[in-house]
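Workshop exercise sheet. Pairs work together: one partner reads the sequence aloud, the other fills in the structure field after running the prediction. Swap roles for the next sheet.
Pair: D.N. / O.F.
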Amino acid sequence: MEKRLDLMKEGKYALGALQGLGMHLAKSSLPQQLLHLLYYRVSQINGCAYCLDMHAKDLLEEGENAQRLFVMAAWRDTPFFSDKERAALAWAEAVTKLSHGEVPQTVYDEAAIHFNTQQMIDLTLATIAINSYNRLNISFPPVVGGYVPGMFAPKAEAAV
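Structure field:
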C-alpha cells in the first residue's frame, strides 16, 4: 500500500490528545498486562496489523504466554484466561462492537464483579483509546514490523 501520510509527524499534536489517555491508564489500578491483552483483542477485531504487532511484542516482552496470543480470537473456548480477564475481554468486545447500540447488561454485570467503578471507567477508556489508534492506523497505515517493545509506553509520572 502506498503511504498516505506520516501520522507520527503530521498528526503529532492530534496524537497528543490520545497520549493523555495512555498516561492516565498507566497510572490506573488496572494491570498493564491486562490492558495489553485488551488492546491486542480489540486490534484483532478491528484488523489493525500495526497494533497487533505492537501489543504482541509488548505482551511477549512482559512474559505473556504465546499460546494465549495464538488463541486470542477464540478466547471464550479456551481454558487459558482467568475469569477477570474474560470479563475484561468481553467488556472490550462489547464496547468495540456496539452491535445493539449498548453494552449488554450481562456483560456489565460480569465485569462489575471483577472491577470497581473507576476500573470500569478505565477499561472503557482503554477500549476507546485502542479503537481510536486502530482507526488512525487503518486510515493512515504505518509500516508494520518495526515496533520495539515499550517504544510508545507512556510515562505514568508525566501524567497530571
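Discussion prompt: Residues 117-139 form the longest helix (23 residues). What would you look at next?
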